[in-house]
């Protein structure tokens, strides 16, 4: 046992000596890829949830009472303004129109007779062959006959309108819904709902913005400028629909602290339908000198974000940063960095501790063709 113990002790002593020799040899600096922090103009974009609505929505009702003779459309189809949708039985209204025409003819005949008698009365009064009273009575009869003609003309026009209203036509271009009433049923004037119509192109997208975003984007919305927005629907990748902001409400909602916006979106293919939820990107802020950095360079330590900066002596330094929105692989640095500093973007796993020497290798950044657009806040 004593011999084995001595052999083991000697082995440990030799191993300790070998370890000391290895520690004396420092490894060479680690090569890492770095990018230079630059500043450039950037537009900040906010993400919002909205709902699609039709600019024109019509609940079509009968304007005269009667039985439905015909439903003249296919449910769900596109219709043009003026297309016939329902036909109400016109026969009672044709009869009323003829009666009104007859009443007008009778009133016109009475007017012609009254005008002739009034003309003779004026001639007789000039030769003192008629009393003033008889003359005035004939003049009054003429005016009464003229008023009767006007009333008969109005009654005829009303009868013609009622006859015209038996043909229920589309008041807008759009898509018609289902028929709420079918042939043979009685439609009551101004009460019975026949169908609904909605316009389809363009469409509105309503969404709410918080006070911070509203304060930032007030410069985007002026009478001369209407900013563009990007819209995406559920199941779509990204924001394929382009719209233009055309309305901002005149007050904030005191309960939610938000203000309502509206965008107009072209819809020639009919992909947008009223009632759909939509995702909206809207510009919220314009920065003249934004610090942009590849988001792979930003690390997270609990609730803090940091990067590794390489100084002039090629020594790494940990730097806490405050970040902003990100998009297209770039992230906005609000605080913590200055233009021109070098930040490690590739090889971060090789940095074991701050203060470690490295060999920085610059990476050529990909330049975007357009001004960076950063989503979110």
UniProtKB/TrEMBL annotation:
Residue ranges constituting the Multidrug resistance protein MdtA-like C-terminal permuted SH3 domain according to the UniProt record: 290-350
Keyword set includes Repressor: no
Localization in the cell: Cell inner membrane
Coiled coil: 104-162
Multidrug resistance protein MdtA-like barrel-sandwich hybrid domain sequence ranges: 56-195
UniProt membrane topology term: Lipid-anchor
Pfam families: Beta-barrel_RND, BSH_RND, HH_MFP_RND, RND-MFP_C
Domain (Multidrug resistance protein MdtA-like beta-barrel): residue spans on this chain: 228-283
Residue ranges annotated for the Multidrug resistance protein MdtA-like alpha-helical hairpin domain, each copy included: 98-166
Family of the protein in this entry: Belongs to the membrane fusion protein (MFP) (TC 8.A.1) family.
UniProt name for this protein: Efflux RND transporter periplasmic adaptor subunit
Organism: Microbulbifer elongatus
Lineage: Bacteria, Pseudomonadati, Pseudomonadota, Gammaproteobacteria, Cellvibrionales
């Amino acid at each position: 046992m004593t011999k084995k113990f001595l052999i083991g002790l000697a082995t440990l002593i030799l191993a300790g000596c070998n370890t000391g020799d290895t520690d004396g040899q420092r490894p060479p600096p680690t090569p890492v890829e770095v990018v230079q922090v630059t500043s450039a103009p950037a537009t900040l974009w906010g993400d919002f949830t909205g709902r699609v609505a039709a600019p024109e929505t019509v609940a079509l009702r009968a304007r005269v009472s009667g039985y439905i003779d015909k439903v003249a459309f296919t449910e769900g189809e596109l219709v043009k303004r003026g297309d016939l949708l329902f036909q109400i039985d016109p026969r009672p209204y044709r009869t009323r129109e003829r009666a009104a025409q007859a009443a007008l003819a009778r009133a016109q005949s009475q007017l012609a007779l009254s005008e002739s008698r009034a003309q003779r009365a004026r001639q007789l009064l000039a030769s003192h062959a008629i009393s003033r009273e008889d003359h005035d009575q004939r003049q009054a009869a003429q005016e009464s006959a003229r008023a009767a003609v006007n009333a008969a003309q109005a009654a005829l026009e009303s009868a013609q309108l009622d006859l015209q209203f038996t043909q229920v036509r589309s008041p807008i271009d759009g898509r018609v819904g289902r028929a709420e009433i079918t042939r043979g049923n009685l439609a009551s004037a101004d009460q019975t709902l026949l169908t609904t119509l909605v316009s389809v192109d363009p469409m509105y997208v309503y969404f709410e913005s918080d006070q911070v975003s509203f304060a930032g984007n007030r410069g985007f919305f002026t009478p001369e400028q209407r900013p563009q927005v990007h819209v995406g629907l559920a199941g779509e990748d990204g924001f394929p629909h382009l719209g233009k902001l055309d309305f901002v409400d005149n007050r904030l909602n005191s309960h939610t602290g938000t203000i309502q916006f509206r965008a107009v979106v072209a819809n020639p293919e009919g992909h947008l339908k009223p009632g759909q939820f939509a995702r909206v990107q809207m510009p919220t802020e314009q920065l003249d000198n934004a610090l942009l950095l590849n988001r792979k360079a930003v690390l997270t330590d609990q609730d803090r974000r940091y990067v590794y900066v390489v100084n002039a002596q090629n020594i790494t330094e940990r730097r806490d940063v405050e970040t902003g929105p990100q998009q297209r692989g770039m992230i906005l640095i609000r605080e913590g960095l200055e233009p021109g500093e070098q930040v490690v973007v590739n090889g971060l796993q090789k940095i074991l501790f701050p203060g470690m020497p490295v060999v920085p290798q610059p990476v050529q950044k990909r330049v975007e063709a357009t001004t960076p657009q950063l989503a979110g806040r």
